[in-house]
Amino acid sequence: MRCGGCGSKVGASVLSRVLKRIRDRVPHREEVLVGLDEPDDVAVVALPKIDTPTDGKTDTVTVTEVDRYALVQTVDYFKTYTNDMYTFGYVCALHALSDCFAKGVGPVSAMCVCSVPHGLESKTEEHLVQMLAGACTALKESACALVGGHTCEGDTAMGFSVTGVCDKQSVMKKGGMCVGEKIILTKPLGTGTLLAADMQGKCKGKWHLACEKSMKQSNYQAALCLRRHGTNACTDVTGFGLIGHLVEMIRASNRSNAQEYLARARAETETDIEKSKIGAELYMDALPLIDGALETVHKLGILSTLQPENIRLKKAVVSLSPVDSSSTRTRSPLDSCVTRATTLEHPYLARVRGLFLAERHPAYPLVFDPQTSGGLLASVPADRAAECIAELKSLGYEDACVIGDVVHAHTLEARTPRTHTTNDTQETCAYIPRTHTERITQMFDDVTHTVGLSVGVCEL
Questions:
Q1: How many C-alpha atoms does 382 have within 13 Å on its Cβ side?
Q2: What is the pLDDT of residues 251-264, one digit of tens each?
Q3: CA-to-CA distance for 100 and 92, rounded, in angstroms?
Q4: In sequence order, which residues have a C-beta less than 8 Å from that of residue 168 and are 6 or more positions away?
Q5: Which of 111, 143, 176, 224 is in the most buried spot, having the most CB atoms within 10 Å?
Q6: Quick one: which of 301, 384, 310, 379 has its CA closest to 350?
Q7: What's the DSSP call for residue 275?
Q8: What 3-state class would DSSP assign to 201?
Q9: Which of 175-184, 329-338, 339-348, 451-460 has the lowest mean pLDDT?
Q10: Residue 77: predicted pLDDT
Q11: Rounded-to-integer distance, Cα 14 and Cα 243, Å
């Protein structure tokens, strides 16, 4: 059974290969400020100059005030994961709107596309009514107008194309993380495994309610709060999981940092630019998890069908583990994912040191769990993090917390100094820095939990 929600999306490696193959065919326009060249959660398009006919001639109308603004566009779509069509429509709309929220942009309008099973007219009508009623509730709460859409017959699925307007200078991006900032996550992890368990009829009622509560919580107020507390880098955690989206932020930040270095002083050496690269250190014990997520992974062995794609990180690094990964141990649910994930062509490919140790941490599988309507991931100045978390909690984001730090990549533990490339694409590296607890726990094969274990993520 294939998963619904964000777990039904096509994997990142397939998308990467497709985009590479059609790269020369992709049309461009000068008005595109953020697009496929530097992918983000949304596209940002400058308003084109308006040509109006005047006495048979064409004049270009330029309005200085209008030139400040740009259109923001995003789209999201996935299969259903539930028989509750109202809730499905509500979550679909929130999920699509979150891309705008993560950029600090207010949505203006949305168009809906949905697919419904063939059947009696009365059944089809009720199906659509419930889906759209839920979606309209979520859109109305975010002051976003529903302006049109399209329907077709097929498996139940729904999506939205959302348009907003932003000030070109104030829109937040994935890049912009700075050394010394704290990394904040506003919602708990675990929707992927819980929805998979629910589709198999193995998710307890209280777990399902906790999962649904998380998915139905809008990121709108969280985005406003993060902006008030000085965040410049933000994204929403969705199909690629926590690690995948964090790596995207790191890569985008390093790209923008390198551009700033070159613009500021062309005499900067490649070594200087390398030293300017940032990384992140995540604290596994700090990760917020939805009630039941650990049970569905470790006791029931249920993972999202998108997990094998996200877990390719692990497949690529087994040979680099400093601990003998062939030693006798109890197989984890992740092992089946590893055997199914056989290729290394992945835009977020990573290497992990201390892998055998990391996968023994209970939360480890959930850093790869695809999230449906997940929380915001952002970095804020360290001196404002505590105040930010307090405000987030007062706004109802009970699980919001600091999960790590932005650090200089070169200050993390020394790693194998080589970069793996696949199809001429430089990949990204994630690894585990040595901690005082790691030196002790590596001596034992029966370790089941490492207190204080941290996972570092950086770009080579």
A1: 8
A2: 888 877 666 655 55
A3: 14
A4: 33, 44, 46, 68, 69, 70
A5: 176
A6: 310
A7: H
A8: coil
A9: 339-348
A10: 84
A11: 18
